Amino acid sequence: EFHFHCQQVAESFSAAMGGGASAERGAGSAPVLPQAPAAAESANKLTFDRCWEELDGKMGNDFDAGIGPVQSVSAWLGVAPPANHPTYKSLHSNFPGSLPGQVVLRRCIAATRQYGLTPENTIYGQSTCPDEINNEAGDLASIMQEYWGECFPMGGIGGAPYVGQTGFMAFSHHVPEDGHVLVLFGPHVAISATGEIGKYKRIGQAKESTACGAVLAAYNACCAGAVQSDDPLDMQQNWLKQKLSNHLDKIKAADNPLQTLFYTAYEAVKEKLLVCVNHKYGPGNLVLLGGIQINMPAPFEDQFCPLMFQISSETRPSTDLMSAFSYEPPATLEDQASYAAVAASKQCNQLFSWLELVPPAVSPCFQALHAGFPGTLPGQVVLHRSTAALKKFGICPDNTIFGQSICPDEINNEKGDLACIMKQYWGGCFPMGGIGGAPYVGKTGFMAFSHHVPDDGHVMVLFGPHVAVSEDGQLGKYKRIGQAELSGACGAVLAAYNSACAGTSFDDMETDMQETWLYREVEKQLDTINAAEFPIAALTHVAFAACREKLLGIVNHNYGPGFLILLGGIQINMPAPYEDAFQPLFFQVSNKNKSVNLMDNLVSQ
After folding, report:
1. Alpha-carbon distance 11 to 217, whole Å?
2. Each residue's pLDDT tens digit, 383-427
3. 421: nearest Cα among 582, 293, 543
4. pTM of the full structure
5. CA 601 to chain centre
6. Is 340 helix (H, G, I), strand (E, B) or coil?
């Protein structure tokens, strides 16, 4: 039978770490670990029902169902603290409604799309504090700029728009014809690993320092009575002190002075921004997104507490868009017995749909996706969950080389696709695959690649074929940029299947050896594929089995004592605006002596 190796991760981790001694072995004995699977598993025993049951019927034991959906899924992904972490209570009691930066970005995109805003017709500015911890990779300010394009920095220390009316006039007159203006604004504050507000452990420093240092320094100066100053060399700090001094009694009298301090700082920044902005640049929309950026301790991503989100133009008064950040579970499917309905009932898929990572559950695209490829996850989810699991083994980019055996189709290598974000995380990539995703570099190629490993380091390989799902739910169909009609994906696998169905022999190892290999693998399983409920899904799973068998035949541990990590599955090309997905089917860590199955880390919740 087609086996996806879905064992309990608790057992595998316990064995891997030498813990959880069972009754079968005495104290001090070597841990008992599952062995690596045999390389040759017959694809003609493919049974999809068992696959669906294994993948869609499991729940991970690290999913925190006792908190809100956004918070629980974010904690499952490792980007936000779980409910039992000291920072969780501090974050949500002091700054309720806070969201990970990625969530804010995606909801901002969704809300503004209906008003016609795109990166091509919108200019982006931000009035945030220049503290470097606000501009790290993954921070809201950074990912907003990555999406919307070049940024006009309007802010100074504390986040206020010190560029003033003149600065906004200059910025807004850079707008495209009939285009729009979007501004992110607000102060920032840190929360330490112990939950203390205003404290941050910076890289290279032995002790925690303050954040926002300027706001806290201004507050301390006001408390000490040192407010009046006209130092021309410190104009921004002078402004902060003056604004905070006007509300000093209220801040000091509050139950939580630091919380009140940063909300007061936000109001001061907002007041100044509203005086600066106008609609004199043209008929386009002005979008203001304001709040408090919250710097979180590693490994969590920075959060943002949205307090203002509105759109207006010279002919239309302001419209409040804050409801975009209020999570509403999407509609589910009435047929609770179908595989798509099971997927639609999962909290993570509901949240992913709200974030436009996946299609709505009621759409033909979602139903086709999960009927044919159960257990599918967005690519960035696979990255977050797989890297979190591997960190427990000491596997990180500094000690690991990365290779991938995927189809070279350009739609597998677009920005945000799993292959691309894996390369961004792990570093340079050794391409092992050809059409259909099989590792045609062979034993010699793997030997060359694996001997590039750092001393005592590890080897990571992502592998598998790909398939597309169209907006109307057709498997194997994709709307490519610049083309009027849908085309096949994976074209090579579909061509091999069509040749086999037509009874056309394909044997050209001299000039078309990769397609010849694909044809032979598909032709062997033609009856099984045609008998399946979803033949294109069955075809793609046969292609995966062939890729996996070929990969397991060429890999080894001859490069040293480090781990070999194999992450295999089916990459699924999705229609815009959704992210490409990945159906994880194989996730294993091994060395010369042991292997550990990690598939449970990739089971959706």
Report:
1. 51
2. 999 999 999 999 999 999 999 999 999 999 999 999 999 999 999
3. 582
4. 0.83
5. 15
6. helix
